[in-house]
Specification:
about 280 residues, 6-stranded antiparallel beta sheet, 4 helices, 14 strands, disordered N terminus
């Protein structure tokens, strides 16, 4: 499993290019500041919603209070599930996919798809969760709220696991900060390009760098609702930094405008995605 990586272009819910268009900025003078605003806004959204919307491949352990059902954070898929049968932190009992269900059962059929929040032993399963074992359940999978994909194009030629550039069958634009799923690997577009050549940062979000053959499709990750909220809030924050008293533009004959302290539509849209804690 790959190493978790984080940099200023990682996991922004909208793109630097999109934010610059929104703000009417065409030069690169303020790019570092804009990237920081995007990063901070994206992480604020995570904090406000109580969940992460981007996918991450990781292994996690849990203590099961019930032998038949285990509640989990937002889960997109499971690649391995095992349990510790004698409380020694060795997960010797591997469960097959026929031993468990992911719930709610129709989450992946929603539009956009929603995550699973529980793992349940099937009625015919011969195994159960060890309720007496602290951290007795180990789950390897893909965690997060979204893995909403749209095609970014396909590879013109094969890419090795060590390569940091790829040639696509079509031209860009490819935008820095785009997160792509290429088979089981996540890659980050590392620079703007309007040609068939794209610069990539490999093995993102816990994935492993792999060889990909010619014709392999690269899928761009998108974040419905969250993307628009991030764009609106990041633009507001950027403008507000130049208007400490809530007024942008001044002067004897200049035009002044009020910068809102918050965007009601952002709060409204994100409120529907907040994790609800009971009790």
């Amino acid at each position: 499993m790959g190493v978790w990586t984080y940099n200023r272009k990682t996991m922004g819910y909208t793109l630097l290019a999109t934010l610059k268009t929104e703000l009417g900025i065409s030069d690169t003078t303020d790019d570092v500041r804009l990237e920081r605003v995007l990063r901070d806004t994206s992480r604020w959204i995570d904090q406000y919603a109580g969940r992460r919307f981007y996918p991450q491949i990781a292994t996690r352990t849990f203590t099961a209070p019930d032998s038949e059902r285990l509640s989990v954070p937002d889960l997109l898929s499971v690649s391995a599930l095992a349990t510790d049968e004698n409380d020694d932190r060795v997960y010797e009992l591997a469960w097959t996919s026929t031993c468990y269900d992911l719930d709610p059962p129709n989450s992946s059929s929603e539009n956009p798809p929603e995550p699973y929040t529980a793992i349940t032993a099937t009625p015919t399963s011969s195994v159960s969760f060890p309720t007496g074992a602290v951290r007795g359940v180990q789950v390897t999978g893909k965690w997060g709220y979204y893995e909403n994909l749209s095609s970014a194009g396909s590879l013109e030629s094969a890419v090795t696991a060590a390569a940091t550039t790829a040639t696509m069958k079509s031209t860009g634009p490819w935008h820095a900060g785009e997160l792509w799923a290429v088979e089981s690997e996540y890659v980050l577009v590392d620079a703007e390009s309007t040609t068939t050549a794209v610069t990539l940062r490999r093995a993102q979000n816990g994935s492993v760098a792999a060889t990909h053959s010619s014709g392999t499709v690269a899928n761009r990750l998108t974040f419905p609702v969250v993307e628009d909220a991030c764009l609106r809030e990041a633009a507001r924050r950027y403008r507000a930094a130049d208007a400490p008293f809530g007024v942008a533009g001044s002067g004897e004959f200049g035009q002044a405008s009020i910068v809102a302290k918050f965007d009601p539509l952002v709060w409204q849209n994100l409120s529907a995605l907040r994790r609800v804690t009971v009790g």
